[in-house]
């Protein structure tokens, strides 16, 4: 039931529902970013700009406090990346309320995000420490190298399966709940409109899609910042 479905075909080239949904999310975020950043003034004169500066300031403070000022000075783009991946993650969970399948229920999506973090760790580690970064795999003794290498590969696996498992689990629970409501509705012939299927699941959607989705997104960006900044510190 949760296997990737192909919805667009161009000859032998196929696009899955997950990819199409991600394109929709990207288009939405691009349009919103364009509308929010129009007519920006040096001195805020609109509530829109005040809110935008407040949100970006909070994001900058969070990333700076987590990764350190020295790290941000050499990699200021980290603030934009963390903000982007967080918004994309949250939108990927909330889009379920519009009838789309969440991209995070596809392991390909979470693996791709985790691999970005995985390679970013080594790129930033080499940038800050040079090739001496890899000496950390031999600490505290060279005998620990195999375990250290296993630990390195455990990071992307953990980052991939944590959000995938949580979001997929919530989606399965909601699907079963809708099936149950559909069954109960069919037992009442006089009930022409399945009101229960519209109203009863709302609290569950708020928990599984809004709360749990936002929580998983926050955990993902925090682990990303901790892992990447940790690779640059002595």
UniProtKB/TrEMBL annotation:
One protein family per Pfam: ATP-synt_A
> Do you know which Gene3D superfamilies this protein is assigned to?
ATP synthase, F0 complex, subunit A (1.20.120.220)
As for membrane topology, the entry says: Multi-pass membrane protein
According to its UniProt record, which protein family does this protein belong to? Answer: Belongs to the ATPase A chain family.
Name the InterPro entries for this protein. ATP_syn_F0_a_bact/chloroplast, ATP_synth_F0_asu, F0_ATP_A_sf
Chief place of localization: membrane
* Gene Ontology CC annotation, any one: plasma membrane
- Tell me which domain of life the UniProt entry assigns to the organism this sequence originates from: Bacteria
- State the protein's name: ATP synthase subunit a
The record's Gene Ontology biological-process terms are: proton motive force-driven plasma membrane ATP synthesis
TM spans (from-to): 20-37, 78-98, 110-128, 164-184, 204-228
